[in-house]
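Notebook entry, structure prediction.
Reason for the run: the old model in the group folder had no record of what sequence produced it. Starting over properly, with the input documented here first.
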Amino acid sequence: MSLWKHPRWMAGLCTMAVLACAAAPAVFLTAVDAAMLGRRAAVKDAYVAPTPSGEDYYILRQLTARQQQESSITYSQVPEAGEPQGALKMYIGAQNSLESMMNGYQYRDTVDATFQQLTEKGVIAPEWASWASAWDTGSALYYSYNGYSYDLSVPYYATDSLGFVTLKRFALEQGALYTVFSLTMDSRTGVVTQLWVSAPQGGEQSPAVPDETSLRSFAELAGLENLGDWAVPENTPYAHALYSANGAALITATVSPYQYSGWADGTTVTSDRWFLSLSLQPCTAEELPTLVS
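New structure, fully documented this time:
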């Protein structure tokens, strides 16, 4: 019997052949699955989720790079491939004196917004922000030894070679210049890494110190809450601190009295004040200091 003379039979056989070919992979995989389900095999570290580390976070990589470069300043004697001749491999820190910093009048709103955010998130008490951003210095000018005058109603700034920017506000205490605050942040992300604020010592009671909840909020603002293991370190000299072993990162806060001493019109000026210090820094478990019993 010629199939060409029976087109319906021919179409049916072709359809059956196509269906058989299409079903072959499914039949094979079903057979393999059935075989595998009947076996057991040991799996290393089963059900363990990936653990985040400091390398996963840009800001911690930046801080680690700064720490490493600060501790190893070297000149490149033999340039690497693609490196210009005589290249300088060196960390250049931000300047910290009024005379060496730049007028940052355009960053005053940035400073105010940063302190407002730190206050709203509960990182620092409102009085610290109030002392830091009390810009009502009028037309106060400071006349420096270099013959220039400096407007004290604006912040001043300097940037290091890794992109960390330090913003400062200066004021006069009985004619002597002192630092009201120093704020360091990453210029690319705006993450605050260090904060120092000075306040008048109006009484014996210490201004509010950031507690554990405040420090957790600070970690959250830095985008590091997902490290997941922030905890108060035990047996350390820090009264207020959080440590993450996963991130190898340490957050510390200190409020303490100090005596400012300056020089104005040929006389020494002293003033009893308080300071707040808040910082985020890389710190391995081996570097974490412990109390000596």
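Summary: The two ends are 104 Å apart (CA to CA).
The old model has been moved to the deprecated folder.
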